[in-house]
Write a structure and sequence with these properties.
Layout (H helix, E strand, L loop, with lengths): L1 H12 L17 E7 L6 H14 L3 E8 L6 H11 L7 E2 L19 E2 L2 E2 L14 H11 L5 E5 L4 H7 L11 H8 E7 L6 E2 L6 E2 L4 H4 L2 H10 L3 E5 L1 H5 L5 H6 L8 H9 L9 H10 L7 E2 L3 E5 L5 E5 L5 E5 L5 H12 L16
Parallel strand pairs: 1-2, 1-6, 2-3, 6-7, 7-10, 10-14
Antiparallel strand pairs: 4-5, 8-9, 11-14, 12-13
Helix pairs in contact: 2-12, 4-5, 5-8
Length: 358
């Protein structure tokens, strides 16, 4: 017993100990995954969704649903474009109507792009107005899942998950939102907050950072941080900032088709030779592969959200929250994994549909 205690303390001190909730399921069991995204506000959401499809083709996860926190009617059709391109056009998509970031964005318009009178990226969902609410999609996906199995990856605002927590029992489940999450969710992997000071883009001075996904909907972030009942793994702003997606991959690795929605979205957002930070991708990677040591982990603690959108982390032995730590010797391996998965062609790992097939 003493030797086990010493080992636990050693692993905890170097950030490699994984509590049961953070450990992966059996290797033969794909991780049941829900992706909650503000797609359209940055191209990293698109790369992250492409990663999920690659991981599903490899048998490592199963995408149960995509829910959207960007309140624009083209966000859901664009997600449907991506899912259909990767041969999974029937994945449920849910939307919210919060008024948060309601502009179209630089690439969601690809959902309406045509060539010779035909949709460039075939899909069925023409408008977010046709999509169900995010809360209803979340409740259905959770109710249908095995207890304690689901991993949710939130890479946008906390709007949908906060609304889920306050949802009442309904015809889908006799449980309210908090109890449904407690029964069905194993882990929330979230790209939000900042746990290190960030260099000012003008002066280079290290400053406390108010992260976008938090301050765009502070009340929802506060509610999630206060009431979420399962383990949370936070990928702070500093993680993706220090892992850049190589623009050479955009120019080289997506040319197996004439038009690729992931590459085109990246180019429309900020064209190469820009190397985009991989914020959202890191949350997907650790959600599906938590025990492959792409990152170290902080000691346990608790994250709180202030009224001004800044976040605090207080260590606590029995804390619900941990955050990712990136060391220099981990950067090359993590970047390689993010790049290879994001650029993997549809069906190349498990014989799924070819691009554009359903």
């Amino acid at each position: 017993m003493k030797s086990k205690t010493v080992l636990w303390l050693l692993l905890l001190s170097i950030g490699l100990y994984l509590p049961p909730a953070l450990s992966a399921q059996e290797p033969s069991e794909p991780v049941p995954l829900i992706f909650d995204t503000d797609i359209g506000n940055d191209s990293d959401d698109v790369l992250a969704l492409a990663m999920i499809h690659a991981l599903e083709s490899r048998g490592e996860c199963k995408l149960l649903a995509v829910t959207i926190t960007k309140d624009n009617e083209l966000a859901a059709p664009f997600v449907d474009c991506i899912n259909t391109f990767y041969g999974r056009g029937d994945i449920p998509i849910g939307v919210c109507h919060s008024g948060v970031t309601s502009a179209e964005g630089k690439f969601n318009g690809l959902a309406n792009a045509t060539d010779d009178g035909q949709l460039r990226y075939p899909h069925d969902l023409k408008s977010g107005k046709q999509a169900p609410s995010a809360v209803s999609v979340l409740r259905k996906a959770l109710a249908d899942a095995e207890d304690g199995s689901v991993v949710i990856c939130q890479v946008g605002f906390s709007t949908n998950l906060a609304n889920l927590l306050t949802s009442p029992a309904d015809e889908v489940s006799s449980l309210n939102g908090v109890d449904l999450v407690k029964q069905k969710v194993r882990l929330l992997s979230i790209m939000a907050a900042a746990f290190e000071k960030i260099p000012d883009h003008k002066t280079g001075e290290l400053k406390r950072y108010r992260e976008y996904n938090v301050f765009k909907d502070v009340p929802s972030a506060q509610q999630l941080a206060a009431k979420w009942p399962t383990s949370i793994l936070w990928s702070g702003f500093e993680i993706g900032l220090n892992l850049k997606y190589p623009h050479e991959s955009i120019e080289r690795d997506f040319n197996y088709v004439q038009h690729h929605p992931v590459a085109e979205a990246y180019e429309l957002y900020i064209p190469p030779p820009h190397d985009r930070p991989t914020w959202d991708l890191t949350s997907v990677l650790v959600a599906v592969r938590p025990d492959q040591h792409y990152f170290d982990l902080s000691a346990p603690g608790r994250v709180t959200v202030q009224d001004d959108g800044y976040t605090n982390f207080e260590p606590a032995e029995d804390g619900r929250d941990r955050y990712l730590i990136l060391k220099d010797d981990q950067k090359a391996r993590a970047t390689e994994a993010l790049t290879l998965l994001s650029s993997q062609p549809p069906g190349s790992a498990a014989g799924h549909a070819t691009p554009g097939e359903r």
